[in-house]
Amino acid sequence: MVQVVWFKRDLRVEDHRPLLEAARAGAVLPLHVVEPAYWRGPDASPRQWRFLRAALTDLRARLAALGAPLVVRVGEVEAVLADLHARHGIARLLSHEETGNLWTFARDRRVGDFCRAHGIPWDEHRQFAVRRGGMNRDGWARFFAATMAGEPLPAPPRLAPTDEPPGDIPGEPLPWTAEDGLRSLQPAGRAEALRLLDGFFAGRGADYRRGMSSPLSAPRACSRLSPHLALGTLSLREVVRRTEDEIRALSAMPPALRPIPVAAAESFLSRLHWHDHFIQKLEAEPELERRSAHPAAEAARVPTAPDDPLLLAWAEGRTGFPFLDACMRSLIATGWLNFRMRAMVQAIASYHLALDWQASGARLARLFVDYEPGIHWPQVQMQSGQTGINTPRIYNPVKQSLDQDPEGVFIARWVPEVAHLPPALRHAPWKAGAYIAPVMDHEAAARAAKARLSAIRREPGFREESRRVYERHGSRARPFDARRPEAPDMPARAPARQLSLGL
Ligand SMILES: Cc1cc2nc3c(=O)[nH]c(=O)nc-3n(C[C@H](O)[C@H](O)[C@H](O)COP(=O)(O)OP(=O)(O)OC[C@H]3O[C@@H](n4cnc5c(N)ncnc54)[C@H](O)[C@@H]3O)c2cc1C
After folding, report:
1. Fold of the 287-500 domain
2. Cβ burial 449-471 (10 Å sphere, 16+ → b, else e)
3. Which of 374, 470, 469, 370 lies closest to 130 in space, CA to CA?
4. How confident is the model at residue 388 (pLDDT cuts 50, 70, 90)?
């Protein structure tokens, strides 16, 4: 009999309770299943597979050093488990809880049915401050602190192996996915994740709070841990505990000797809270991947066809707004974009271009190497005015351009068609009749979006429904105010002078 440890998005040997418990109980078969049906889904992409593949290769070596290399199989999880059960006898299946997309949610239900039918206990362990099916946010901050308390667990000293052959890890790109324009991929694996974390506290994070806003400075100023957290090459608890230690150490140092300001580390820590705060939303309501949080917003949705010319112009960086196009082109080439620009590109798709958030959200999901459904879909909805509890923010693409890239350096790098223009014209080349004609009049489009939002807000019962959304998903950092249901849901700094709607 063997203990099967099913590695999903927790690709590490440290701070891994399922692995530690399995190691104590007997022979361990560490397993990852590459599921073709998942990889054919609308939110999966070759770049995500390339990063995952490298992380699996790293994990295989780390597990082999403990005695039992990672077994990789291609197929449906139930079929793989049935085969292993027939040949070895599975004493127990162990894994971490996963808040994935609707596809993985349905798959986990099928795996649960399989385990029950075969009398195999399935132990699922929590790795985030995310309550299964949790519907009420009261006491969530305490829950986060309690979940992150305690030292991260050590790796098991050794693993008793089985005779199961490890099998090949499929190549890249997967045979059932197409290439997608990626030019450089962030390195994967545990050593790289630790290098990023160390580098951030050793000085790279010094300019975190200011540098995170511009796409020029953010790639260096931000931690860049997101794909590692999405695949669990580091546990969130490891990062939270390290950050708390750093804050204590920095606070004890004379300011001149601090490699990064205390405020930068504190700001980073607050983002680690948001990681779980957002994932909790999708865990509580998995349908948020498909349905708007607020019923009035859902009723007003107009579907967008996957080949809609506006959607394609936006997704491929051909809207005629150089800064917007530069953001999309850099995302296509690198698989990463800073938070502010993710919010802007999503908001422009939903507000100015009136595209359905699900069509644009799926395009972005595929472009993000760090795709994390529990952060992604609630963020897409929030930046698209679908929640009824967040202040809608209609970004001005030209103002963002002037604020975040005043010299047009980022624009020139990614939109060479306008690089010959003087910096002032790179923000609005239509004034010189250069570049492609803009797909919209952005000021008129913003006014139309505001009118659509106002109409939704006038629907009968809007406030009552907002209260329901707040009860389920809202941060308790602020009380619900029925007169202002759309107040900030989290202590995010509002971007100055955007068209923030006093609805
Ligand atoms: C429309 C949209 C979609 C997004 N989709 C994703 C996604 O699929 N995967 C993803 O990891 N992040 C997503 N984000 C959040 C955020 O943009 C990224 O987490 C961040 O840019 C990653 O870079 P970093 O690791 O250097 O971040 P840092 O600033 O160094 O933050 C450290 C970690 O905190 C968490 N974090 C940071 N900002 C947020 C936030 N606003 N909400 C929740 N958690 C946060 C992430 O885990 C991040 O890795 C999305 C944001 C928007 C507006």
Report:
1. DNA Cyclobutane Dipyrimidine Photolyase, subunit A; domain 3 (1.10.579)
2. bbebbeebbeeeebbebbbbbbe
3. 374
4. confident
Q: In CATH, which of 2.40.30.170, 3.50.30.40, 3.10.290.10, 3.40.50.620 is domain 2-127?
A: 3.40.50.620
* CATH 1.10.579.10 domain residues, the chain: 287-500
pLDDT of residue 133: 76
Outline which parts of the chain fall under CATH 3.40.50.620: 2-127
pLDDT digits (tens, 9 = 90+) for 260-296: 999 999 999 999 999 999 999 999 999 999 999 999 9
> Is residue 493's pLDDT more than 70?
no
DSSP SS3 for 481: coil
Instruction: Give the largest Cα separation in the chain, rounded.
Output: 74
- Categorize the per-residue pLDDT at 407 as very low, low, confident or very high, splitting at 50, 70 and 90: very high
Q: Which CATH class is domain 190-283?
A: mainly alpha
Cα 209 to middle of ligand 1, angstroms: 14
Ligand 1 centre and the CA of 214: distance in Å? 15
Question: Distance from the CA of 477 to the center of ligand 1, in angstroms?
Answer: 20
Is 271 a pocket residue for ligand 1 (Cβ < 6 Å)? yes
